[in-house]
Amino acid sequence: MEPVLVAGAGPVGLVTALLLARWDVPSVVLEAREQRSQDGSRAICFQRDVLDIFDRAGCADDMLAEGVTWTTGRTFSAPCGSYSASAFPAGRSTTSS
């Protein structure tokens, strides 16, 4: 079987390669950078449904242990003032019934 080309070694690319490996599908991950950034994660936050995918891949617990939880986002913009949006209540998954 020919390997699947995965473009990018960010969260989506790496989880894609992980899930392909679990299904015994070979993959090659290509990343533009020569080495990993020392700045840490480039992601500001992950939506709950993305965390559900990470959970299925078996890596959500480690991410949750290192991250913080928030339920409300605020955007400030002059002259319009501010905008606030609330997320799902803590502990509720987007995929739960």
Q: Classify the helix fraction into a percent range.
A: 25-40%
Average pLDDT, to the nearest integer?
Answer: 80
Q: What's the β-strand tally?
A: 4
Low-confidence stretches: none
Strand order of the largest sheet: 1-2
What can you tell me about this protein's structure?
It is a single chain. This protein has 97 residues and is of the alpha+beta class. The protein is built from three helices and four strands. Strands 1-2 form a two-stranded parallel ribbon. A two-stranded antiparallel sheet has the order 3-4. The longest helix is centred in the N-terminal third of the chain and has 12 residues, at 11-22.
Keywords for this structure?
alpha+beta, two-stranded antiparallel sheet, 3 helices, 97 residues, 30% helix
Quick take:
With 97 residues, this protein is α+β, with helices and mostly antiparallel strands.
Give the topology.
Blueprint: E1 4-7, H1 11-22, E2 27-30, H2 48-57, H3 60-66, E3 72-77, E4 81-86
Parallel strand pairs: 1-2
Antiparallel strand pairs: 3-4
